[in-house]
Automatic annotation (TrEMBL):
Gene3D superfamilies: TonB-dependent receptor, beta-barrel domain, TonB-dependent receptor, plug domain
Keyword tags: Cell outer membrane, Membrane, Receptor, Signal, TonB box, Transmembrane, Transmembrane beta strand, Transport
Subcellular location: Cell outer membrane
Residue ranges occupied by any TonB-dependent receptor plug domain in the UniProt entry: 41-147
Protein name: TonB-dependent receptor
Domain of life, per lineage: Bacteria
Homology family: Belongs to the TonB-dependent receptor family.
TonB-dependent receptor-like beta-barrel domain mapped to chain residues: 289-644
Protein topology in the membrane: Multi-pass membrane protein
InterPro entries, per database record: Beta-barrel_TonB, Beta-barrel_TonB_sf, Plug_dom, Plug_dom_sf, TonB-dep_rcpt-like, TonB_rcpt_CS
Amino acid sequence: MSIFTCLVLSLSIATDSTIKKQNFLLDEVTVITQRNEQKVFNTMGSVAVLNAKNLKNYQYRSTPETLFGANGVFVQKTNHGGGSPFLRGLTGNQTLILIDGIRLNNSTFRYGPNQYLNTIDPFLIQNIEIYKGGGSVQYGSDALGGTLQINTANPVFAVDKPKVNGNAIVRYGTSSLEKTARTELSFATQKMALKAGLSLRKFGDLIGGDTTGVQTPSGYDELAFDVKAKFQLSKNVFLTATHQNLNQSHVPVYHKVKLENFKINEMSPQKRALSYLQFDIKSESPLLKNLAFNVSYQGTEEGRNSQKNGSNVYRVENDQVKTFGSFINVRSEISPNWDASSGIEFYTDKVNSTKQDTDFQNNKITYSRGLYPDASSFNSYAAYSLHHINLNKWDVNFGARFNAYSINVNDQTLGKVNVSPQALVGNLALGYHQENHSMTYLSFNTGFRAPNIDDMGTLGIVDFRYELPTANLKPENSYNFEWGYKFRTPTFSSSVALYHNQLRNLIARVKVEGQKINDYQVYRKENVEKAYIQGFEWATEWMVLPEIKIYTDLAYTYGQNETKNEPVRRIPPLSGRAGVHYQASNAFFVKVEDIFAGKQDRLAQGDKDDNRIPKGGTNGWNVLNIYSGYEYKNVTLIGSFQNIFNVDYRTHGSGINGVGRSLIATLMYRF
């Protein structure tokens, strides 16, 4: 741990927003825990919010990298075009990602790290809410480790006469690390507001620190466009219409080319499109204060292209998932001190999967079963109710959700399979407020993850294994206990949380002894494991002066697989950050930040077999970054100086090293 870190380890930040001295800290607003607006300080759980000011000031390269260093969040990068968030030691299909309340998770989300978060254009984002340890009651399957809510920016109505404005953004990274151009246009009247944007991005090969140098191949191209419109149909009725589209091409999987004898191994295309309509209806009736009705369509496409060294066969795999969804959420005031959010949800997935091998030597094309059974379907039906009661200094949260599923697979190995798992989950939290400056809470959340088509129908090479399809799987379950304490004054805040999460019926890959296919060991998934994950998170912030704040945070995670009597796979090491933020005025800021992680040598057998993890574990590291920005009239210039000391480092479980010493400059012009 660096001297800089040690000097400020007792001081920390809960958010990076610019806060005037007279305002209380921890005053960010979140909706994720109760599907209703609530101050972070008042939430009876571990919640963090990365706000618009944070995202603008630091100009993160990608959406996963916005979370880099956030308290209690660990980001693994299998490749430069990926980025998978770990919440409370879990990732992949055991954490839930939402976009404006709509599930990004679909029925082919994989166990372990994935790239899906990187298909959200960071220029869309208004803020990110992070709910650690909960979310199943509120939003359904997959929230065993927690929930990420990505809220996209809304267009704003004009106060009087119609307005037209826009932004132009260009960004350049040294050594061709990044070339980005983004333009946005907005038009607004008193009853209608429209915002549209286009992003063109080219990422060069990632340059590592110290002795690593250029990591080839790792660069890729990205094209994204978006439009969002809001209409006031009447005094109390609003309509929001949105479309987002992102396409990434030729995204290399670096470690496979480097370590697994591949001439080509890439994802192309890596695509996501989301369209939705949402009606928001306000009412004077206490039992129907607000009704939100949403219908959505989301399409994802993942292409995988590969060719081994010395082979004449070029393989093209393609998986497409079309998701239709709808929800109705009603916010009610049952009494002056009792409010509730209740609703119903429906999602349906259609999965298409193909594989094509082209033998250039023999001029032959062979078509075969894709990674998943083609024409599979996955349906989810749910009802929930969440309640919050205030009793003077005491707060009580409780809620329940019932989820039912219908999963249909027609597979050449399994035959026709229909399974209908169900889950009933609940939560309960009790909080006590001492005046306006401190709050302590106890919470209990149950969670679940329904088996999906990736669990049941995978056939082929995944990571360093060959998987066979499986039927008759049950939902995974979690039981999360948490104690927390939050303290704040106008100039100081601190929070701490201790948690213990029991995991049951975990779906695990089980080795089929004595069987190999194409030199890969064969595995099949079964509900065979139980485990627990526990740890603590701590964050504080001190406004030394109205212009200066000093911060640090720390997170520790310990996981034990009770079935195998070994560590849980991919558990992050002790990690945190510390820094100083100086805001001279609204026009100028400087932030110096140290992000660090300890060594992780507590490994499961699966970690030891993973070629992304060095023998003996992943070494600890410290990375020092400097951010600075200046705003003059309509022009803003922001510089990001990353890894000042050119440290050679890798986040645990990643397939590629972190960025070396580099400078990324962003120029924004408003018109």
